[in-house]
Amino acid sequence: MSSPYAGSVAVVTGAASGIGHATASRLIELGARVIGLDRDVGAPQGVDLRVTDVTDRASVLAALADLTSIDRLFNCAGVTGAAGPETTLRVNVFGLRDVIDMVLPLMPDGGSITNIASVGGWKWDKNFELVQGFLATVGIDDLGDWCTDHAELLAPSAYPFSKQCVVVETLLRCAELAPREIRVNAICPGLVDTPMLGSAPAGRGYVSAFPLPFGRMTTADEQASVLVYLGGPDAGAVSGVILPTDQGLLASVRVGALASPFGDA
Ligand SMILES: NC(=O)c1ccc[n+]([C@@H]2O[C@H](COP(=O)([O-])OP(=O)(O)OC[C@H]3O[C@@H](n4cnc5c(N)ncnc54)[C@H](O)[C@@H]3O)[C@@H](O)[C@H]2O)c1
Predict the structure, then answer these.
(1) Residue 65: which CATH number?
(2) Ligand 1 test: best mutation among 47, 50, 192, most atoms within 8 Å of CB?
(3) Which of 7, 16, 194, 218 has the fewest Cβ atoms within 10 angstroms?
(4) What pLDDT, in 10s, does the model give residues 154-205?
(5) pTM for the full model?
């Protein structure tokens, strides 16, 4: 049986590390041509890695300049809140959105966009209007002032808000792109064993105190397999799904079996 990815072109941001690396690796195994966009080097063998900063539009445009068609986009680049509010929002939200905007003109109908949110963004519903307003009105030039004005919301970390934005961006794009049969989904991992955890705010004991229903972290490859499924033609009816890949953490919090690790953010 031929692979659902054979002959397709996939762009993977964050392909040099962690979940993006594992996703790029799986896509190569499945016969895709994979273009990696990352500010670092170190993508799997076979990936055409183009050193790119997703917050720099000129850098993304240059990286995509020779491509005529992109079937699948996987947005895996991201930073923790330790990067500070402005950088966290620039990378996790504006970078993701800009890459989508720049890939879309090259994506044929029937393509897919698959994002990574986080269980940390689980209260997106509660903040929906604020998030939607942020996405609709705040640009790169007023981001600094917006962060200052919303310091309380973004403390102690802008990461939860950034991931709420990823969820809402996913839903908005799902609705926008449905007429073109471009599917847009996101996963919501709990803790994943990747280099990112080294930059998590360890001072607050965030990682060591984080609940692990299976008693272990998930692996980057376990996350990648879900991304690859959602982005591929086997998930042809699936769009607008925010899929927890968290070992049942959100479910357990919802039914009161586990205390929420997120406070009221
Ligand atoms: N590791 C976890 O526990 C966890 C949990 C939930 C969600 N996530 C999300 O998963 C995604 C992948 O994270 P990971 O754990 O694989 O982390 P990682 O640090 O291993 O990989 C992130 C990659 O993004 C790249 N990157 C960061 N900023 C960039 C920029 N401006 N331009 C281009 N590339 C940039 C980095 O160089 C790195 O290769 C992120 O969006 C993260 O928020 C991770």
Answers:
(1) 3.40.50.720
(2) 192
(3) 7
(4) 999 999 999 999 999 999 999 999 999 999 999 999 999 999 988 766 545 6
(5) 0.97
